[in-house]
């Protein structure tokens, strides 16, 4: 057996074993839940910038991290590192975060292991040259010279150049991947050594090897039977560089022309579209899997086709295909293209959000026996999915094709770094920059130092809070660009207390405020107090510092303010000015007094003096008078003014102080002229001063007494008045105040009361803040801001001091506690509902046809949950699996019902049989779930229908003796299925058998006729070889027998024993006819008798010898034997010297005496003797036996073929 035959058988055995394995492995359990790329990202525990759906980059990064984790020490092998290195390297252009996870020596250690493998593995490439192809890929990406690998300087390109026989022996995979390898780095195969070495490899040979293995109608496969998505996709990949460049193809030594080559590739593309499943993916051995889908994506991107194209023109074969389907649900997820279909295999269940690592599964439904490949991520699946997504992203972003490695061949792999991006926290206008990288998983931090007056709430993508919100603790997958998160806050509330000090506020003033509020305080227009002018608000009760007119934005504490009131001294100034009257020299003191009183006023009161201009005019006029007066006039005027002032004192009262002080001041101002004042008036002034002092002391004592024994906050005015009055006393007067100590005691008590009042105001503000926070809770719900509001209210309350807490309205506290309890109840209720859903799912148990109500109940309970609650259901995947299982069971039951509905007569139930068969095949890998009884019944119905159709289309007019095998096949099947045939079908089958019997009888009769003729033959029959009968035409009898025997044309007739005996007998007779005809022909070659010479004696003797070898009967059949007799006679006469004479007949011109005469030739001097009777069969037995065996083999193969119908 040849090597390629062994390989073919091995492949068939492998394919059969795989099918058997898949069949055994198909069970009832659904092992995993498909990932939904359209909506599943929302439940990953990972947030995306602006909540956008992640691109394929996210999945490339996640799976690359999985590969790095699962393959920490890549080494030689298709599943132990080579493809992992390829996938990780080919995605480096993304600058994704996984590059940060690759250890510094990851690739260098891999290279060292490969070098060791090359040095030590003597079997490397011995049977599989794809080992070299695979290494060319990985090493090229790592800038390694594949022409000189390891210390052995192994040249991988030479290895694949000199071993075309190994490429052929390995199968179609080898030329595919070898073409890919040499094109990956623009490598060239070495020229043949020696020249025209048949084992030397060329691109053309490999192209031809692939094209010649194309399956009819397009596509490729391992077993050369049915096209396979994987191999078809790989073949397209290998041929892509030549498809895309006619010039490149024409430089090869392919035996095909470019157009035929292009058609083959496009038939493969069209076949790939045909093989695409309704959901957009691909399968192998009836199992939808990620690897088949990955290879299809790579194939299309390599050849320049978008895997999501809806219109792909294939001009060479005049066809258009689409790779976007109508869409279908597989394993609970609907997709309509191969990219999304591939993403459904992503193992999202194993994703750790903070690490960002998750691989791809091989399958998600069914079990292909792949060592857990139906339940979790798989190494090979992850490798292929990664580079398939890289291929797609490269195509979509205009990068170099996946398998064209020239962009990385000379670029140091160490130069690829993760793309740096910044996550900036804008904390109330201050930037906190956190460097990270593209696709890194960044855990969002909290603002632990919020601005005064605010409580941190969350982050937002927009400064004004109108963007997407992110909570502290969320894990954010970083986008490609720098991003900023803006802090968002809730306000802290503060209390405002106004102490009007017996004044009356006539406007509304807020009692609380926030840090961003500005509150205008009441002014003199909106606060009054009889007898006083409002002088501003102060933060202390002693009015220290500056007054404030508003609570400014930015205030972050509760405030108590005090109203300050001032007296009406400015009114006295106004009166003083009005009393000046006509300005004379005597008015000098009045004008100066008015000026002094005005100057003693504060600016506030000065501004209230409305007749200031009168004072100024008087001062001007007085100056003019003084400038015009004599010195004596001035003295007299001054003395008169003093006396007038003393007289104006009148009765001394407390209000006389200013008058007395004025008179004293004017008197003292006279200096040496004091003696000119009336002495009585001087005494009056002295007496007035003594009286005033006593009155002042008495007034202070009275003001102290007015405070009363019980000091309250209301006593403040009296105490301050008493203090002010006391302070106005001279040092000589103060010791004379008898009750001064009472004033001091009252002041101490007032201070204490004020401190208590301030504390009370602070407490009230805090209480208000806490109660407002509680009021802000509002209606408690799970999925509004209730949790935040409750937490804020609780925090506000808990931060209060114990004495302040005691002041909070008990009803408010009850509201807070109730809100907390209500929220806990909501959480408990939610948890109970989640548990109820989980319990309902658990209660489903093993899914049967009776599980529908349980599954519907579980689904109803699950759908009743709100969206944020559904991810909490731990076994939600089991519900999806149960629904899938019930769907399968229902479909299986429907198939069984369809089968049960089929009637007895197959042809009368054609539609039901076809419908049941379609439904059965639609079950795919779940066909085995149909009961064996129903499967057998359906198979019998199909066979019955096929039998009925075969009987119906059987052409009765062409029945012959050789139709027995196909008719026997019908009879054999009918013997089992007869009850399923209609009367017409049974009747026709009888007719078919009758016609066969008639045809065979006719053939037997013909054989009998021919046999009788053959048995009557004389020639070749030893017992009759001397029975000479004149006039008998024995040669003609032989030929007639041949004609009759040749009428037996069927294999059936030729298989009869009489046929073979007659054939042997007839062959012997024909051999004797041939001997006779040869003698006749020889005689015909003789010259004319008259021309015979002695030299012709040899020829005549040779002919005579042949003639004598014939029997008497045969000699009698030599029609020109007389010529031989005459020739011998003539020669004897010539030898004796006599002239030949004619003894009878016309001898002048002799014509051939036999119709079988050949063209005359020279007589052959050397010749084997003619076979004797009975010896001729030895010469013909070998070809005859061969013919008989060939006929028998053909007959048996035909019977085998017919038996399959």
UniProtKB/TrEMBL annotation:
Could you list this entry's UniProt keywords, alphabetically sorted: Coiled coil
Q: Where is this region: Disordered?
A: 1134-1170
User: Coiled-coil intervals in this record?
Assistant: 736-803, 1059-1109
Q: Name the principal localization, coarsely classed.
A: other
This protein's GO CC annotations: cell envelope
Spell out the InterPro entries in the cross-references: InlB-like_B-rpt, Listeria/Bacterioides_rpt_sf, Terpenoid_cyclase/PrenylTrfase
Q: Which SUPFAM superfamilies does the record associate with it?
A: Terpenoid cyclases/Protein prenyltransferases
Q: Which NCBIfam families match?
A: List_Bact_rpt, LPXTG_anchor
Write the protein's name. Answer: InlB B-repeat-containing protein
Q: What is the lineage of its organism?
A: Bacteria, Bacillati, Bacillota, Bacilli, Lactobacillales
């Amino acid at each position: 057996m040849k090597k390629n035959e062994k390989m073919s058988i091995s492949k068939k055995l492998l394919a059969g074993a795989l099918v058997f394995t898949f069949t055994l492995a198909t069970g009832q359990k659904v092992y995993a839940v498909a990932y939904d790329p359209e909506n599943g990202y929302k439940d990953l525990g990972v947030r995306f910038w602006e909540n956008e759906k992640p691109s394929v980059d996210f999945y490339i990064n996640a799976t690359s991290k999985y590969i790095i984790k699962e393959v920490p020490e890549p080494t030689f092998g298709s599943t132990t590192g080579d493809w992992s290195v390829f996938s990780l390297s080919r995605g480096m252009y993304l600058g994704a975060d996984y590059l940060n996870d690759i250890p510094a020596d990851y690739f260098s250690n891999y290279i060292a292991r490969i070098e060791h493998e090359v040095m030590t593995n003597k079997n490397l490439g011995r049977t599989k040259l794809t080992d070299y192809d695979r290494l060319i890929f990985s090493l090229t990406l790592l800038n390694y010279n594949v022409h000189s690998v390891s210390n052995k300087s192994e040249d991988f390109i030479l290895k694949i150049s000199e071993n075309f026989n190994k490429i052929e022996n390995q199968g179609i995979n080898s030329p595919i991947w070898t073409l890919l390898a040499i094109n990956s780095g623009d490598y060239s195969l070495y020229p043949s050594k020696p020249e025209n070495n048949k084992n030397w490899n060329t691109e053309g040979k490999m192209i031809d090897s692939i094209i010649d293995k194309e399956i009819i109608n397009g596509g490729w496969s391992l077993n050369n039977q049915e096209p396979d998505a994987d191999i078809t996709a790989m073949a397209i990949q290998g041929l892509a560089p030549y498809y895309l460049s006619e010039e490149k193809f024409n430089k090869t030594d392919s035996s095909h022309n470019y157009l035929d080559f292009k058609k083959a590739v496009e038939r493969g593309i069209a076949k790939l579209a045909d093989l695409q499943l309704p959901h957009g993916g691909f399968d192998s051995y009836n199992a939808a899997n990620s690897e088949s889908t990955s290879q299809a994506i790579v194939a299309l991107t390599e050849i320049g086709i978008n895997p999501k194209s809806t219109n792909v023109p294939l001009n060479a074969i005049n066809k258009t295909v689409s790779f976007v389907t109508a869409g279908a649900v597989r394993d609970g997820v609907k997709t309509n293209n191969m990219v999304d279909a591939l993403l459904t295999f992503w193992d999202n269940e194993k994703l750790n959000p903070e690490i960002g690592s998750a691989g791809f599964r091989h399958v998600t439904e069914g079990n292909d026996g792949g060592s857990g490949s139906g339940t979790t991520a798989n190494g090979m699946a992850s490798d292929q999915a990664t580079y398939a997504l890289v291929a797609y992203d490269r195509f979509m972003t205009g990068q170099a094709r996946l398998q064209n490695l020239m962009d990385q061949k000379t670029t140091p792999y160490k130069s690829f770094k993760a793309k740096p991006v910044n996550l900036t926290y804008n904390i109330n206008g201050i930037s906190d920059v956190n460097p990270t990288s593209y696709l890194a998983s960044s855990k969002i931090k909290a603002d632990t130092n919020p601005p005064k007056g605010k409580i941190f709430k969350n982050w937002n993508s927009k400064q004004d809070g109108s963007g997407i919100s992110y909570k502290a603790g969320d894990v954010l997958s970083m986008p490609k660009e720098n991003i900023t998160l803006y802090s968002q806050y809730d306000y802290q509330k503060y209390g405002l207390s106004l102490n009007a000090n017996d004044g009356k506020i006539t406007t509304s003033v807020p009692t609380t405020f926030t840090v961003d509020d500005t509150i205008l305080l009441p002014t003199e227009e909106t606060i009054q107090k009889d007898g006083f002018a409002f002088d501003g608000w102060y933060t202390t009760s002693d009015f220290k510092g500056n007054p404030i007119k508003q609570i400014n934005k930015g205030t972050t504490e509760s405030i108590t303010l005090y109203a300050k009131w001032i007296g009406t001294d400015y009114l006295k100034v106004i009166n003083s000015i009005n009393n000046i009257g006509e300005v004379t020299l005597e008015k000098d003191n009045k004008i100066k007094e008015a000026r002094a009183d005005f100057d003693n006023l504060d600016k506030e009161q000065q501004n209230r003096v409305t007749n200031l201009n009168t004072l100024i005019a008087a001062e001007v006029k007085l100056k003019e008078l003084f400038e015009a007066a004599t010195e004596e006039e001035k003295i007299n005027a001054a003395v008169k003014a003093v006396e007038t002032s003393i007289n104006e004192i009148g009765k001394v009262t407390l209000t006389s102080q200013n008058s007395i002080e004025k008179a004293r001041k004017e008197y003292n101002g006279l200096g040496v002229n004091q003696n000119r004042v009336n002495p009585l008036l001087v005494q009056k002034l002295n007496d007035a001063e003594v009286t005033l002092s006593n009155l002042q002391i008495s007034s202070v004592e009275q003001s102290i007494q007015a405070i009363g024994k019980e000091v309250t906050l209301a006593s403040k005015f009296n105490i301050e008045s008493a203090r002010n009055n006391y302070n106005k006393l001279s040092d000589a007067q103060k010791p004379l105040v008898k009750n001064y100590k009472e004033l001091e005691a009252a002041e101490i008590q007032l201070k204490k009361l004020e401190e208590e009042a301030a504390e009370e105001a602070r407490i009230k503000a805090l209480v208000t803040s806490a109660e407002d926070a509680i009021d802000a809770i509002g209606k408690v719900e799970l999925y509004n801001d209730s949790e935040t509001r409750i937490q804020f209210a609780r925090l506000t309350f808990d931060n209060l001091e114990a004495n302040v807490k005691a002041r909070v309205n008990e009803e408010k506290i009850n509201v807070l506690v109730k809100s907390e309890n209500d929220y806990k109840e909501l959480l408990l209720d939610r948890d109970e509902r989640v548990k109820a859903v989980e319990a309902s799912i658990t209660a489903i148990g093993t899914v049967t046809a009776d599980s529908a109500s349980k599954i519907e109940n579980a689904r109803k309970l699950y759908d009743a949950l709100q969206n944020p609650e559904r991810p909490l259901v731990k076994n939600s995947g089991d519900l999806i699996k149960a629904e899938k299982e019930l769907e399968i069971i229902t479909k299986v039951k429907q198939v069984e019902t369809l089968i049960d509905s089929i009637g007895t007569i197959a042809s009368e139930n054609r539609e039901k049989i076809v419908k049941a068969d379609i439904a059965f095949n639609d079950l795919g890998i779940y066909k085995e779930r149909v009961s064996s009884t129903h499967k057998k019944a359906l198979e019998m119905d199909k066979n019955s229908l096929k039998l009925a159709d075969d009987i119906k289309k059987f052409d009765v007019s062409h029945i012959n003796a050789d139709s027995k095998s196909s008719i026997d096949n019908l009879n054999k099947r009918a013997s089992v299925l007869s009850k399923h045939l209609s009367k017409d079908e049974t009747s026709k089958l009888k007719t078919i058998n009758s016609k066969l019997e008639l045809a065979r009888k006719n053939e037997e009769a013909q054989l009998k006729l021919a046999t009788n003729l053959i048995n009557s033959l004389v020639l070749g029959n030893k017992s009759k070889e001397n029975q000479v009968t004149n006039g008998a035409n024995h040669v003609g009898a032989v030929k007639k027998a041949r004609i009759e025997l040749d009428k037996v044309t069927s294999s059936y007739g030729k298989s009869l024993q009489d046929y073979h005996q007659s054939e042997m007998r007839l062959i012997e007779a024909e051999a004797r006819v041939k001997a006779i005809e040869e003698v006749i022909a020889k005689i015909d070659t003789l010259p004319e008798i008259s021309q015979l010479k002695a030299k012709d004696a040899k020829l005549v003797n040779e002919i005579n010898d042949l003639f004598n070898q014939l029997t008497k009967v045969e000699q009698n059949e030599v029609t020109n034997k007389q010529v031989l007799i005459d020739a011998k006679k003539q020669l004897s006469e010539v030898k004796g010297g006599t002239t030949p004479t004619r003894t009878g007949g016309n001898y002048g011109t002799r014509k051939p005496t036999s119709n079988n005469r050949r063209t005359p030739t020279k007589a052959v001097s050397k010749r084997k003797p003619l076979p004797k009777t009975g010896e001729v069969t030895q010469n013909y037995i070998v070809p005859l036996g061969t013919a008989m065996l060939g006929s028998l083999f053909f007959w048996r193969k035909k019977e085998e073929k017919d038996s399959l119908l």
